[in-house]
Amino acid sequence: MNKKTRVGLLGCTLLAGALGATTGMAQERFVTIGTGGQTGVYYTAGQSVCRFLNRAETQPAIKCNAPSTAGSVTNIVSLQNGEFEFGFIQSDHQHKALNGLAPFDKGGPIGELRAVFSLQTEILTVVARHDSGIATFDDLKGKRVNIGVPGSGSRDTFDEVMKAKGWTNADFALAGELKPAEMASALGDNNLDAITYVVGHPSGAIQEALTNVQATLIPVSGPQIDAFLKGADYYTAAEIPAGLYPGVDAPVPSIGGKAVLATTAKTDPEVVYQLVKSVFDNLERFKRLHPAFADLQAEDMIRVGLTAPLHEGAERYYKEKGWL
Predict the structure, then answer these.
(1) How high is the pLDDT of residue 232?
(2) 135 phi and psi, to 5 degrees?
(3) Cα(6)–Cα(95) distance, rounded to whole angstroms?
(4) Cβ of 185: how many Cβ atoms within 10 Å?
(5) pLDDT at 1
(6) 215-218 vs 113-129, strand pairing mode
(7) What are the chain's domains?
(8) Were 128 and a residue from 134, 163, 189, 217 both cysteine, which residue would form a disulfide, CB within 3.0 to 4.6 Å?
């Protein structure tokens, strides 16, 4: 073999290798999971799912990222417009979006919405300063209350409860719209009397508020709340357990739903299958990544709170496991 031939063969080999590398890169698939504020459980959930999916030996490789977002409502909008492949949403929002109910009534039902699995129960949580004079939910009226970020699940849930009570924003001395990461400091600085947040427990934001501020959890209960639950079956009565936070020695009644990982019918079934497999094949490890995940059970995760149809990729895995 002469020198020219060797050089030519070497060039072909390098070119083939470069083309192979390019093809391999092109085959990588990228997915985004919408989460929530960085102090909330959604953010940890999204980061955890991505951790397992990124480590999975899939062919082609699936690369996952889970940015912080404004929460449930924003995630549904981002699913609908194709910005995200997956998003964590409240089970009540899943129901509303699927059926074209407010706050998703302007564009009509989002019939392509699909469920993947559910996680922790999310509870409407109210924290009030000891010196605020707030002992019951009705005492919030006339006070400085953070009602949530527009476009967040917390805000939508609180708006629903306000409507059931016959309240408007004008019934508060201040209707704050701070992000979860900003609430505890505002409460501690006496710029707010109370904060509201729909979240799984234990929550870092609630822990911060109850640890650094002389404050307490306020029950969300009463005849109007009972009537509200009867007319909104996508919510259920719920309790914040005793012992999770300082000074909380008895369960605190409220309302809640489930956190659901959602997608759309357009998402590749193989991608959904691999995501689900990466989580459930490592479920015991997943449960250790946040205290709110500690009691998760597979049989509940694939049924409870799923008010949209299962995605076919998730259904395939659950049937393979004999769970459906």
Answers:
(1) 87
(2) -125, -25
(3) 66
(4) 15
(5) 52
(6) antiparallel
(7) 26-120+259-320 (3.40.190.10), 122-257 (3.40.190.10)
(8) 134
Residues of the chain with pLDDT under 50: 2-24
Helix (H), strand (E), coil (C) string for 17-42: HHHHHHHHHHHCEEEEEECCCCCCHH
Q: Name the phi and psi angles at 177, rounded to 5.
A: -130, 40
Rg of the chain over Cα atoms, rounded to whole angstroms, equals 23
In this structure, what token pair is assigned to residue 204? 């870092």
Task: Tell me the CA distances in angstroms from 183 to 57, 195, 248, one per residue in order.
Answer: 41, 7, 19
Residue 110, classified by CB atoms within 10 Å of its CB into exposed (0-12), middle (13-18) or buried (19+), is buried
Nearest to residue 235, comparing CAs of 262, 211, 253?
A: 253
C-alpha 99, offset from chain centre:
20
Tokens 């609908």 locate to: 80
Give the pTM.
0.80
Q: Comparing C-alpha atoms, which of 74, 70, 62, 64 is closest to residue 33?
A: 64
